[in-house]
Amino acid sequence: VAAVHYALWREKDNPVKIVSSNPAEGTQRVLDIEETSTESVIELAERARDAAQWYAAQSLHWRSDLLGAMAVELERDGDHLVELALFETALPRPRLEGELRRTAFQLRFFASVVAEGSFLQASIDHATDSPMGPLPDLRRWRVPLGPVAVFGSSNFPFAFSVPGGDTASAFAAGCPVVVKAHPAHPATSEGCYDALQRAVRGAGAPEGLLAIVYGFEAGKALVDAPAIAAVGFTGSVAAGRALWQRANARPVPIPFFGELGSANPLVVTRSGAVRSSEIGIGVAESMTLGVGQFCTKPGLIFVPNGDEGNALVAAIVETLEKLSDMTMLSVGIATHFRQGVNVLDGLATTRLYGDSNGYAEAHVGASLFEVSAGTFAKAATTLRDECFGPVALVIRYDDVDDLRGALEVSDAALTFSLFVGDSDRDEKWILELAARKAGRVIVNGYPTGVGVSWSMQHGGPWPSTTNAAATSVGAAAIDRWLRPVTYQGVPEGLLPAALRDANSLGISRRVDGVVR
Amino acid sequence: VAAVHYALWREKDNPVKIVSSNPAEGTQRVLDIEETSTESVIELAERARDAAQWYAAQSLHWRSDLLGAMAVELERDGDHLVELALFETALPRPRLEGELRRTAFQLRFFASVVAEGSFLQASIDHATDSPMGPLPDLRRWRVPLGPVAVFGSSNFPFAFSVPGGDTASAFAAGCPVVVKAHPAHPATSEGCYDALQRAVRGAGAPEGLLAIVYGFEAGKALVDAPAIAAVGFTGSVAAGRALWQRANARPVPIPFFGELGSANPLVVTRSGAVRSSEIGIGVAESMTLGVGQFCTKPGLIFVPNGDEGNALVAAIVETLEKLSDMTMLSVGIATHFRQGVNVLDGLATTRLYGDSNGYAEAHVGASLFEVSAGTFAKAATTLRDECFGPVALVIRYDDVDDLRGALEVSDAALTFSLFVGDSDRDEKWILELAARKAGRVIVNGYPTGVGVSWSMQHGGPWPSTTNAAATSVGAAAIDRWLRPVTYQGVPEGLLPAALRDANSLGISRRVDGVVR
Q1: Does pLDDT of B270 surpass 80?
Q2: DSSP assignment letter at A100
Q3: CA triplet B514, B515, B516: central angle to 5 degrees?
Q4: Alpha-carbon gap: B394 to the closest alpha carbon of chain A (Å)
Q5: I need a surface site. Which of A163, B159, B238, B352 has the fewest CB within 10 A?
Q6: Of the candidates B39, B119, B49, the residue with the CA atom closest to the CA atom of residue B476
Q7: Residue B55 and residue A145: Cα distance in Å, rounded?
């Protein structure tokens, strides 16, 4: 997704104040928040490290309750938070209300993941004789990494921001969190922080368990802060790659989990194209959902040549024509979008819909372009890049070889969607390619919904993320903030409860190689 | 562990030939192997990528059988391979025979991990209504990353080299392997490669499933090769960090799992020091095992001041005095070791045992140094670095604060050993610190044995590895070579067998959130 910088308010020698902007109206208000100094960032990270040891010593039950309390406090401030987000994001009220509900649901989901306990991956090998001689008693589980820095996204002011999946999964893993507030919604960030901090205080935890910092420089200082143990990031390829390199360049490098850009392919096969009108409407709705500001937006639409394909493309255009003008999350993002559309205009063969003229500030309209599969396969890679916003590129193909050639040159993505008909046996090769190229493969569905569940994968090979083994949504998001420790020959009384013979936590464990 | 470069044999314009060196005798023989050109490296990696798709389509049963066949072929050539390694490593025959057995055992262990199937982390969420509305059918498992580059270590010519844990776990995960032969044992590497390749051919697999490359430049080219999907490395901090940065600098960065240096702490508490003589002998044996060329060698020995501590240190020295002179793996490693000992000599307060004079080429003697905890805590960090070889630094402390101060400044390590007496309640803080600082925590035992089992963790925070969440020994070593993929709404007939409702593979799975 696109990068955006703070609107700043600097007055003589006073510290820089953070500004909250309304992209729909173009109005601004100066918040009573200053940019966080590097010294403060380092101190907040150290406070988080102190809290980490305290937090790791609490029970799973306590940790689960904390997450539940966070959900309650977030909902308690719901109306106020939605108002703040309405002002700052121009997203419609029902969407923001739904996103807040989802975010509270996600906190409760991680509360249940903590209570269930299998994320600890507890494994006990009693001392035994092996073909290699005696093996000592070995017991392995996973411990929290320490303070996690969270860089939220612009496009989900709740679900992928201060109280979002990175924060919820880090707390679930037993890690304190220091959030870098997103410049596109600082007031919403502060409001969410206040709600979560109330839960922290109410639980009697040290305040250092949760902190928030503001400002571009503060973000860099946060990645550098010695007490920070890992980073979760959702944003653009450029910003993500720069911060990832920064994390790698530290004297003690730390893991960086970045969800970056993704031009998600959506393939309609010949047999799928029979439902041309239904799929065309669905594609148009999915690519413009949230003003096209979803990292899972289908951006590359592969459609067969011929009548049915033509009808499908016509249905997309017809649906787009019914849309009103739209407001993006910020002027910066809209400007970036218009630049991207202009690039597509220069590289694609046909503009099927849309016109960049007449839009200014944060206001934009949808666009649709077309190119042949052959041209796509040979074109500059910029044609295949993500363009964040309500735009898609239709790629028309003749046959399987034509389609395969175009798909093989596509970058990896978060998702890969496939619309097929009943004769689905011939599509196995596409599913194999899709699993190589994406973290989630969808048949006869749209990629823009990302359910919070045990089996969700929201991640994919580079450049869609910095780490294809990780997910930022679903139960496995907790895996990012843990590392294994094995205890060898440690007396029962000195072992953590999860690794004692008596399974007092009642969690799923592997004992002598067998899952119980 | 220390870096070492190829001995090369260049004759006029002919390609560079690889040389096999005998560190004990100082003799060499030119092998009929050339350095691998960059073009060949790229081609071998591409061949591996082609094989990857074929391999991923084979059943778990087939994959498990392949690993078993590799163990058989390795054992079939056992006598020959041990002879090659004797010449190249100067390690004693029983050690090499044991290591070969262990390596075959490890291949069979991973065969059983594959057959057991829970490494797939298969999870099925049937379509359901959630508080957030309908959730689609979601099914998640883990797929192989693709061709893995393996950089084996100098110190274990079998167990951490061509047929070692990285290779075994990568094949178990479903990934082809391209090994970079270690310059300290190229003939052994070639011999092991031949044995494994026989198993590949015997199974009817494409030859590209396994490849080997030789030469310093070939190693760099291998990390750069576009078809390589991940790297496993065991070696020095310097070489590991350089190759890790190289992997990160690729246009498409790839995960790099490096096991680097580790100065493993071993703490004897006051109550533990009662068994001074027994522990002293054990420490001396552990620190000189395999000529001190274990990445788990206890290098920092924390001993209380006072009579019992003195007796313990005396027991270490007495045991060292009984040792003969030793031969290290190569002249380069021995030279590096002597340099490290000289640095310690300049920084430590007392030399308790040993004398660098009189040794040359690959021949060395053991050394032991002493320093107070206070000096250790304030000293240059080089005093706390790993010195690969038969040397350790004894750190003498007065009380708990003194000990804690010295331990807090120590780097993270692969292992942390603790010798305690019966009054073990007071040692909880050390175990907590140990779990923060190391991947394996050992009570009343020595760190040098690393058992192959479900619960083993061989890894630790930076600088002991590049990725604290990974292990290079034990069942979880397979995790490094996998990434998750979720299938959404995919018809049963198009799903992989592991994710169909009928659990035909009979593997442990999570279904609708419950482990079954």
Answers
A1: yes
A2: H
A3: 110
A4: 23
A5: B238
A6: B119
A7: 35
- Length of chain B equals 516
A1 confidence band (pLDDT: 50, 70, 90)? very low
Which of A102, A226, A109 lies closest to A169 in space, CA to CA?
A109
Extended beta strands in A67-200, E state: 123-125, 128-130, 133-135, 138-144, 148-151, 177-180
Select which of B190, B295, B370, B387 is catalytic.
B295
Active site residue B386: no
Give the model's pLDDT for residue B1: 40
Torsions phi, psi for B490 (to 5 deg): -85, 130
Which of A100, A455, A473 is best to mutate for the B interface (most B CBs within 10 A)? A455
Average pLDDT over residues A414-418: 98
Q: Which three-class secondary structure state does DSSP give residue A437?
A: helix
Looking at chain B, which residue has its C-alpha nearest residue A471? Answer: B484
CA of B352: how far to CAs of A107, A472, B313, B317, B382, in Å?
Answer: 57, 53, 9, 7, 19
Tokens of A166: 């990175």
- Nearest chain A residue to B463 by CA distance is A252
- Locate B219 and state its tokens: 């190693």
How far off is chain A from B361, nearest CA to CA, in Å? 34
The angle formed by the CA atoms of residues A223, A228 and A230, to the nearest 5 degrees, is 80
Which residues in chain A touch residue B459, judged by CB atoms under 8 angstroms apart? Answer: 484
Number of residues that make up chain A: 516
pLDDT digits 0-9 by tens, A256-275: 999 998 999 999 999 998 99
Q: Structure pTM? A: 0.96
B123-125 and B128-130 strand pairing: unpaired
- Identity of the residue in B451, B457, B489 whose CB atom sits nearest the CB atom of A442: B489
Q: Is B270 helix (H, G, I), strand (E, B) or coil?
A: coil
CA A321 from centroid of its chain's CA atoms: 30
Please indicate whether, in this complex, the C-beta atoms of B487 and A139 are within 8 angstroms of each other. no
Do B494 and A130 count as a contact with CB atoms less than 8 A apart? no
| Cβ contact, residue pair B462, A494, below 8 Å | no
What is the distance in angstroms between the Cα of A481 and the nearest Cα belonging to chain B?
A: 9
Rounded to the nearest 5°, which phi and psi values hold at B192? -65, -40
Gap between the Cα atoms of B211 and B213, Å rounded: 7
